């Protein structure tokens, strides 16, 4: 390209090239676009008006896109926009030279909506790979899998950006030391994202998670697995991640539960899974938040995980207040709340159909919340969680068998007689490894529940 441009400086050389048929000139220009001169099409168009017309009218000249992480994100996105527009409707190849793994997703984000035209992806630098993407569709690249880990621990030969277990579906895999911020990304169209912390040396904070999620407006399912390091010391409010399509949320093994739940706006959320959130130490940020409900639990119930109980409960409160989600499933596995938080949630989750909880220190006061009650004297009795169909209590050893028997018997006798439009009745109750629930309690409860009672 350099030699060609220099030759074009001479009048006779330029005139000689201008005399070539346009088809041959296009072939020459295609050969000029290499990693040595990634902006060759733009430079060629500056030589003469004829060359500019040829360059602007030929999609073939724009089919190879060379990017590297030495350019700014803004300039790389601008280049991607020009090249993909000028090469349409033909396929294009992306050649990426990246020395930092965290920059891969921002640089590739402009091309993801154009998978039906993206033919080949080649990468050099931090690792080398070549992937044939021909035949892929933008709607078939899902999920995005993000591994947060120390870049010094990466084994380049074990990592492939695009994988496919069931063509035409593609999984995109990225490895980052820190999550990219929303301004560095063209909005991502993934409907499922799986994010996991793999390094004890890197602390991914809720702020960076929320900022990243702000670039994912079509997200329907989000899975996050962390490890239990302290949340950041907050000196400024956290951003709100607005996820209008989110339906499923999994949060596992993190101390950032309160921040994540409190600052996600998910008005369509139907399934919430909380796992391995209980810890027996005090959170560093426990005094930062002072919101309605932050006071000590008036029930004074026993708990081995007071700080995480408060964080989980307050996070769920804020999620309900902000989004009023139509939750159908709430699954809490080694994740707990205070009695006052259960009462808050049970009084507002009018669409909940399935509630599962494992290894909770909940007391009989929480179970009592499921008993039919009259809001005021002379008012008709009702039940909290009126759509509840399936209930599982596992390894909840602070519960007494007598209260479980009394509350569930009274509830099913009451709801069995209600019309379907008013409330559901329990269809399955699983009680497993709850030490206070004895065989004699099960025998008596089965008189009201029959085969609906399951024992583990």
UniProtKB/TrEMBL annotation:
Pfam families: F-box-like (PF12937)
Cited Gene3D superfamilies: 1.20.1280.50, Ribonuclease Inhibitor
InterPro entries assigned: F-box-like_dom_sf, F-box_dom, LRR_dom_sf
Location of region: Disordered: 292-311
Domain (F-box) ranges: 17-67
SUPFAM superfamilies per record: F-box domain, RNI-like
Name of this protein: F-box domain-containing protein
Organism: Mycena rosella
